[in-house]
Write a structure and sequence with these properties.
Structural class of chain B: mainly alpha
Structural class of chain A: mainly alpha
CATH topology of the largest domain in chain A: Cytochrome Bc1 Complex, Chain D, domain 2
Strand content of chain B: 5-15%
Largest interface: A-B, 36 and 42 residues
Number of helices of chain B: 19
Number of helices of chain A: 11
Helix content of chain B: 40-55%
Distance between the termini of chain A: 103 Å
Radius of gyration of chain A: 27 Å
Number of strands of chain B: 9
Order of helices and strands of chain B: HHHHEEHHHEHHHEEHEEHHHHHHEEHH
Number of domains of chain A: 2
Number of strands of chain A: 0
Strand content of chain A: under 5%
Oligomer: heterodimer
Chain lengths: ~250, ~425
């Protein structure tokens, strides 16, 4: 019994060593092949940057807008609007369906803190008259149609106002045209009072086209950061925009 | 006579350990005796709220972004659109004039207060199993909700499905009212799990295939089915090739239902909504009971996977390049995934299932596991519908289905087109 057990007991350590080696080399092989994934919010939101471009700097196709550096409150409101059906885009709605308010806020804050250079503006692709009409609507509005100037809320530099008003400079033409048309036709909504829906409904298709063209050819002012406060107190009430930024009742 | 004796014996044994089921052993309609219980009993209301979670009632009875419980959500069926109803106590547009008996009739018999037959998009084929006691708790909870005035939207169904005669015929064929009967030969947790899965959980509404008339076939087998219109595949809960959990450690089943993710994978698509709105809120004991029951379902492995036909070498090389360019950063060169973050694709049952609805939906639309208390910040997968053509998606999904030991049939460009339609 003891004789027969001797060879096997001699074998045991060597077998164990080989097994250990095999396990080691196997795990080394896996470690080499396994992707290195950092546990960061940037890694968690790869689902966003797939369409909105690396770090949310806008996609090459000219439709998916830049999300990097937009005000956190604005981004959060839009995420909630998509999830809860006030904005319609099936890819976004489906993707956000299982996410919580808190997580969407974390995602919004992440993109709002990214400071990335802006690309050069698009080259003008419309006659001068169209661009002039666009500039007039953006800077002065049109009293005869009760269309207020975009700069009244989005700021004279058109870079938006924290926390909830987005910048307009440098937005893709197709995107701006689609959003204004969506508000006009009732496809896009925001929390009441839905100020942009009221304004878009007063705009003719030519007005929308002119604004979209002119905005798309504007260079983004250095940094492109949203202002911390409005240039002047706001005179139009919008859901999701803090009441503290509004002008007093009598002044509107 | 024999039957009566058996029922008595069963009631005696089970009643001793499972008082919760006792009302089921009596005439289920008699306990409330028509008397409206008020919502004053906070314990009853709280229990009703819990049961409403178990039934995920609010998930359908609220519109996205709308007032909770006020109805209005469109349920698309093969026969047209059914709009869910307002369950708040508003006297004009909600259930303000209903009694506990009216509610019981709806849940148990599928009849509205005025006697008209309800559409089985409201899953009373499952809810009929709910005990009167639980129905009364649900009712107490619904009575406690703030009233919301929001008129119900009329359904938009095609003829003849919009007629009461068609519904009556359907019910004669496919519906039988009856409260859950506990199985005296099974332990209490199995019976509790069966009660939740077959009753309020209405798992068979998705996890059983539907016939040409929209009736679930052999519902309690939970053998899986393609969800009409939505086009997600609710996998078989009995097949080891699909979502059968007989071979899983129990804690993984519980984790999947509670957190939406487990060591064995995550939920996506419609099941993510179920975990988010329902199962993550259930007690540890109830989740354990559901797991016990699901693990006990008879295993059916009749659906042996067809071996994939060998593909052209050039095609394989192109597919492998697509995989390397778009997938391997997260899912690994050999489909091994990243533990706890990105699922392995090698040996992944979701990838190899037939029909290939889910892998295609996930590649096209991307997705997140649900943001639950146990997994509040899930990692996401981007949609590829915007980046890859139908042909490229067919190639890469076929590649994943037939690599690293996976041996499922390839998918075609036509398959991709079919599911892309759900994202428009």
């Amino acid at each position: 019994m003891s004789k027969s057990s001797t060879p096997s007991s001699r074998w045991l350590p060597s077998l164990a060593a080989r097994a250990a080696l095999a396990v080691l080399s196997l795990s080394t092989a896996i470690a080499e092949a396994a992707p290195i994934v950092e546990d960061s919010i940037a890694q968690r939101v790869q689902a966003c940057t797939g369409c909105h471009g690396a770090e949310g700097r806008a996609a090459a196709d000219g439709y998916y807008p830049r999300i990097a550096g937009k005000p956190a409150g604005y981004l959060h409101n839009q995420l909630l609007n998509f999830r809860d059906g006030r904005r319609q885009y099936p890819l976004m709605s489906e993707l956000l369906q299982p996410l919580s308010d808190d997580y969407l806020l974390e995602i919004a804050r992440h993109f709002s803190t990214l400071e990335l250079p802006y690309p050069a503006p698009a080259r003008p692709a419309a006659p001068q008259a169209v661009l002039a009409r666009g500039e007039q609507l953006v800077r002065k509005g049109d009293d005869s149609k009760k269309i207020p100037a975009c700069t009244g809320c989005h700021g004279d530099r058109l870079t938006g106002v924290a926390p909830a008003i987005p910048g307009l400079a440098g937005l893709p033409r197709d995107y701006v045209a689609a959003q204004l048309s969506g508000w006009k036709s009732g496809i896009r909504h925001a929390d009441a009072p839905d100020c942009m829906a009221q304004i878009a409904q007063r705009m003719a298709p030519d007005d929308i086209n002119a604004v979209a063209h002119w905005l798309s050819v504007q260079a983004v002012p250095a940094g492109g950061k949203p202002a911390l406060a409005p240039d002047r107190p706001l005179t139009i009430r919008c859901g999701g925009v803090p009441a503290t930024q509004m002008a007093p009742e009598g002044a509107r | 006579m024999k039957r009566g004796l058996f029922a008595l014996l069963a009631a005696a044994i089970i009643g001793a350990v499972l008082y919760i089921f006792l009302p089921a052993a009596h005439d289920p309609g008699s306990t409330a005796a028509g008397a409206d219980r008020t919502a004053a009993d906070a314990g009853l209301v709280a229990r009703g709220e819990y049961l409403a979670r178990a039934g995920n009632c609010m998930g359908c009875h609220s519109e996205r972004g709308g007032k909770p419980w006020a109805g209005g959500r469109a349920i698309d069926t093969s026969f047209g659109t059914v709009y869910t109803s307002n369950l708040t106590p508003d006297p004009r547009t909600g259930l303000g004039q209903w009694t506990a008996d009216d509610f019981w009739n709806a849940l148990h018999e599928g009849r509205s207060r005025d006697g008209h037959l309800l559409y089985p998009a409201f899953p009373y084929t499952s809810y009929t199993r709910v005990t009167r006691e639980d129905a009364d708790a649900l009712w107490a909870y619904l009575r406690s909700l703030p009233a919301v005035e929001q008129a119900n939207r009329p359904h938009a169904l095609r003829f003849p499905y919009d007629t009461q005669a068609a519904l009556a015929a359907w019910r004669a064929l496919y519906f039988k009212a009856g409260v859950f009967e506990p199985d005296a030969t099974k332990p209490a947790d199995w019976n509790r799990g069966a009660y939740l899965v077959q009753g309020l959980g209405h798992c068979s509404a998705c996890h059983a295939s539907r016939n040409a008339f929209g009736a679930s076939e052999d519902a309690d087998r939970l053998a899986g089915g393609l969800m009409p219109v939505q086009n997600w595949y609710a996998p078989s809960l009995t097949s080891a090739h699909e979502a059968g959990v007989a071979g899983w450690p129990r804690e993984d089943v519980v984790a999947l239902l509670r957190d939406g993710t487990s060591a064995r994978g995550s939920v996506v698509g419609p099941m993510a909504e179920v975990v988010l709105g329902s199962t993550q809120h259930l007690s540890a004991a109830d989740l354990d009971a559901m797991a016990v029951y699901l693990q006990s379902l008879p295993v059916t492995d009749d659906l042996a996977l067809e071996a994939a036909a060998p593909q052209d070498e050039d095609v394989r090389a192109r597919a492998a390049r697509l995989y390397a360019d778009h997938c391997s950063d997260c899912h690994g060169e050999h489909g091994e995934g990243v533990k706890g973050i990105y699922p392995a694709l090698a040996g992944n049952r979701t990838v190899t299932m037939n029909p290939p609805a889910n892998p295609l939906r996930i590649v096209l639309g991307g997705g997140f596991a649900p943001a639950t208390a146990g997994n509040p910040r899930p990692f996401g997968m981007p949609p590829f519908a915007t980046r890859l053509s139908d042909e490229e998606i067919a190639l890469v999904v076929s590649h994943i289905r037939s690599s690293w030991g996976n041996a499922a049939t390839p998918v075609s460009t036509l398959d991709v087109q079919r599911y892309r339609g759900n994202l428009r």
